[in-house]
Amino acid sequence: MAAPCMNCATEDGISQDRIHHEVQDYYGRELQKSEDLKTNACITPNKPVPKAVRDALQRVHEEVVSRYYGCGLIIPECLTSCRVLDLGSGSGRDCYVLSQLVGEQGHVTGIDMTEAQVNVAKKHIAYHMEKFGYQKSNVEFLQGYMENLGDVGLSDESYDIVVSNCVINLAPDKRAVLREAYRVLKPGGEMYFSDVYANQRLSEAVRKHSVLWGECLAGALFWRDLYSIAKEVGFSPPCLVTASPITISNEELERITGDCCFVSATFRLFKVPESSRTGPGQVIYNGGIVGHEQELVFDANFTFKEGEVVDVDAEMAAILRSSRFAEMFLIRAGGSDGAAPRGCCHGKVKEKICDPFLLQQRAAPAPSCGAAGTCGPRGCC
Questions:
Q1: Which of 8, 38, 62, 381 is 20 to 30 A from residue 323's alpha carbon, by CA?
Q2: Could you tell me which residue ranges the Methyltransferase domain spans (predicted)?
């Protein structure tokens, strides 16, 4: 795979190298703690945190936590012994939480392009190994670009899970990031990530504003484009998990963004092998996932209760059959696509919620934005 051109201009005429430099400067020098942020884009919570995760967070060094700028905690379920890659790991907070959840037999790799952040993460490796009672550390931190993971030696099909916490928006080339995540994932692997999305494609004024880049807004992807990029790369259709509105409490920045709205949303993508793609099915959750013993809220469309028969569409059946969740479910052929939520643009029968703006509107009224009501249209076609 060709390396991304770090000095090439984006469609807005801004070089990727300039964007990388400005973001590195913002997170390495301007921001010293989360309170220095000018919007809530990078600190929006995503969902209630299970006790095991809360306990793990309490054991993370205070300097690592204070230099954290992500969108809540991005911690998927069923992690024991997994190999996890964190894109844009920053000071390492999520990596050190994941380190405890995968266990000493698992492994966590963090990659970040900002030297100052990587140095903070590395400084506390020995502290956390002792704190967790491990004989050897199960984390490593690398400085590099998530657009080309090969540069730091990450090989094909080497990770079970890729996570990212409000960082992909900072990458000029989102396709390259998703291609690389797909490449390093094992068959059946998952990309579980939170990011900032816009309800429209951004204006040139927004995309050229250096502070808005650092605040995770200038690089926000139009949410519909995530679906087309994921399909192009080879992932299954994105599963929308949560969505929270973003507020900009800064008059100057509000004037620049105009009627554009932003949302923090969590999605999960799966690398589903063709051999797992058959048809719709019926599944029964066996329980057993720590913190989710009675109920697993998989995404905004599917909730699985222990012992309950659930009809799932072909996409969800393939995901469960091929992923690390397979042992947690009894999966059998049957059911009907019409009996379960369906993917974007597959007809009008009980459509899946694809639009993060629509999901956050259902949770709470969103601010008005866009003359054409573009902040959360019905459906996704």
A1: 381
A2: 81-233
